[in-house]
Specification:
DUF6291, mainly alpha, 123 residues, DUF6291 domain-containing protein
Length: 123
């Protein structure tokens, strides 16, 4: 018997590009290993869709939901770390670009065409 259950969605920041992969731990495998083939395959798909796209599971039976509830916090923690790392890199890149603009030489300076000020009068 399947139950319609939805859990709260983690905050997936739209400014952070979608992930290309995720860590699948041995404990996840061990938690799913004792399930029947169809139930295990369905839960593998649910985990993949959740980890890669943030899709909430809606059609898990009791055993599958209990297992997912145990796995979900690790998936959420890894996603939060990935997003924080991405944002930190983006901030650093932005700061580096601003510094580069400040310290970038003009075209004349790069070509050693510095103006000579002949009209300076010393008294």
């Amino acid at each position: 018997m399947k139950t319609e259950t939805t859990t709260t969605k983690p905050a997936f920041d739209p400014e952070v590009p979608p992930r290309e992969g995720f860590i699948f731990y041995r404990t996840f495998y061990e938690a799913l290993a004792s399930m029947k083939n169809r139930a295990r395959l369905h839960l593998y798909d649910v985990i993949m869709r959740y980890a890669l796209y943030g899709e909430e599971p809606t059609d898990l039976n009791g055993e599958q939901m209990r297992t997912f509830i145990l796995i979900r916090p690790q998936l959420d923690a890894n996603e939060r770390k990935r997003q924080a790392k991405y944002k930190k890199k983006a901030i650093k890149k932005n700061n580096d670009e601003e510094l580069n603009k400040f310290f970038t030489k003009t075209e004349d300076e790069e070509n050693d065409n510095l103006r000579i000020l002949n009209d300076i009068q010393y008294e």
